[in-house]
Design goal:
mainly alpha; 1 helix; 92% helix
């Protein structure tokens, strides 16, 4: 027959081993959750950085478009001023009385 104290010690040791294994599994699960959260944060950081770069690129494109529009308007204004000056010259020549 086996000694009852030895059997109790074996049962107690098995319970301690099971508790230690459960604690290890809980720690591993918590570690995995933390790693998943860290990876999610990194993905969000990268997404935010990409969005920032895209916004900066869009800002530069807008500045370029505004500059091009201003230049086109300036050319159109210069052309209109030239044409108006030419019209005024033609009108002044047409309304001048002819001198013989």
């Amino acid at each position: 027959m086996s000694d009852p104290n030895t059997e109790n010690d074996r049962i107690e040791a098995e319970k301690v081993r099971e508790a230690a294994e459960a604690a290890r599994e809980a720690r591993e699960h918590a570690r995995q959750q933390l790693e998943t959260a860290r990876q999610d944060q990194e993905t969000q950081r990268r997404t935010a950085e990409d969005a920032r770069r895209a916004a900066e690129d869009a800002r530069h494109a807008t500045i370029g478009a505004v500059a091009a529009t201003a230049e086109a308007l300036n050319r159109n204004l210069a052309q209109m001023q030239f044409l108006e000056s030419a019209r005024e010259t033609i009108r002044s020549l047409q309304t001048k009385p002819e001198e013989d």
